[in-house]
User: What shape does this take?
Amino acid sequence: MANSEHTASVPPAIYSIAHLKHQPRRHYGRWLAAALIILALAMIVKAFAQGQIAWPVVGQFFTAPAILAGLWNTILMTICAMALGLVLGVVFAIMIMSPNPVLKYVAVFYIWFFRGTPLLLQLLLWFNLALIFPTLGIPGLFEMRTVDFMTPFMATLLGLGINQGAYTAEVVRGGILSVDNGQIEAAKVIGMTRLTMLRRIVLPQAMRVIIPPVGNEVISMVKLTSVASVIQYAEILRNAQAVYYANNRVMELLIVSAIWYLAVVTILSIGQHLLEKHYSKSLGRRTGKRTEPAAAQGA
Amino acid sequence: MSAMVVAVDVNKYFGPFHALQNVSLEIKHGEVLCIIGPSGSGKSTLLRCINQLERIDAGAIWIDDELVGFRQDGNKLYELTDAQIARQRLASGMVFQRFNLFAHMTVLENIIEGPVIVQKRAKASVIPEAMALLERVGLADKKDAYPSELSGGQQQRIAIARALAMQPKLMLFDEPTSALDPELVSEVLSVMRDLATSGMTMIVVTHELGFAREVAHRVVFMDHGRIVETGTPHDILSSPKQKRTQDFIAAVLS
Assistant: This one.
């Protein structure tokens, strides 16, 4: 080294640093903000503790049969409606990207209609379908009265699932668009048809883009089921309301429902976090940057 | 020798851009043809028309005496369905500039995907063949690796093995070494050289004039969507007759 004689020489006094200490920056603002928030929280807790809330009632109804049945219905509906939404989402995403103009415009119309009208209105439409179609089925083969088929469960399932499908279709479409065109060409040249290519090459690679927003939508679906209380689907909020109409413990029953919603959403959030971690990991491993030529030395 | 590929007056437009202008070409069984020319000259487009990644706007192409993309009935040509086009594509294997290995599959999965899923052959008989192909391109030890774990040269050799696994009649190479670091080019060219020696019909779009000189039976020079000159490697690379070809060769070699 050309400058080795410089580094070896004794530095002048101004550069001696042995007595100096690093001091981290002080965050007075954070301490102040935290103190204010704790104060505000304490006041809210005090208000709830001293307010018109009978906490023993909350405990008493927390595991009441009506509440647990409602909780089960909420979870069941979340699973069923989300499953329907996913299937419809994938089907309509494929349709909207199809070269067939008929399929494409059917999908465009579906998304336009179900994203363009309020969910509540759609639920009411399904629930009152008997006003337009008094009977359902294939004439001559089998028929049934619409009111027998369109139970609160069916109306909620169709309403939530079909509405969800319109949103999920856009998510799936985004995922499909994220797949590199070279992958599609490679699939074509080994003789794959469009559907085989979607199933084997495109959708598996689109998953890592699709999964995070769908996880988000599952969480949102848990809470959306509460809208179905207006068409008498016995989910947790509706059952809580039924109880407080009888015993007038409004706040207590709402708190019970809120705690259950938070519990379910917390569990799902943890699940979503783990799923995303899993997919980002395989993203790094499978489509990370190309290895350097060093890896090719064995060749 | 009969013709493997015959192209007659092929025309292709991208919007107003006339990418191929009355291109006619014949490639014999077992022939190795290199197509050279500046970028935008239509050489990749011609390759992509042969395996129907692009649809031709006029003219006709036959592979092994089968009309590509259409069914002839009297004087009318009827466009084939997607499934029929997919079946026709099995005649040719293609290797891309950017490799395009399936990113979510291991090396072995990449190679057996076509034979198992498309040709519906039994996995048990396909895997030994796939391993033999990996042996042939010198990468048997990488069978469980993912494409992202491999160098460009290794990925391209896997891509060649994947195409060969479909047992195609001819192989199309679209600038197979253009995306590679310079020191990785030779390992890919050496696999291609072996393939040419084995008698495979090959159409190679390339900038590797050395490879063309050594391996090709015939070289085609294209420019502005037309075939400017065709001849033996010596004709085209050492004593080109057309001014345009002379300029191109001079520019590449300088």
